[in-house]
């Protein structure tokens, strides 16, 4: 896989999700994501924030504090004027404000125009949208945190 192009694949306990990268529009963000995936950075992490009909978000490692990027603590946004949150399956960086990208990312479950120009879009779900939709229906508490840990870990699907 090149440093900015490829088809990253996430193996979850609910199924496999693959992504198309928008390396021409967000090269630095794509490189960050692909390199973190290749290093196994997301292994054992969880979809820690789930808001039905909106998005599912992945935290980094085991800390849940935003994580670091391959560039250091954080890096700048790559907001592209042609990319919008027009539907389900959009892959984007979670952030704590402008230019605060690290390792957390989310996948939309529906159009989210309120996020336009606020989060770097760097790809889309290529295969496995039904998996993303199932993740979006996992039980959560009042803070949108997963109640069950059964469907959260990355890794091969259990057999049997």
From TrEMBL:
Catalysis: reaction(s): [protein]-peptidylproline (omega=180) = [protein]-peptidylproline (omega=0)
Enzyme class: isomerase
Domain PPIase cyclophilin-type: 11-145
Stored SUPFAM superfamilies: Cyclophilin-like
EC number: 5.2.1.8
Protein's job: PPIases accelerate the folding of proteins. It catalyzes the cis-trans isomerization of proline imidic peptide bonds in oligopeptides.
Full protein name: Peptidyl-prolyl cis-trans isomerase
UniProt organism field: Microbotryum saponariae
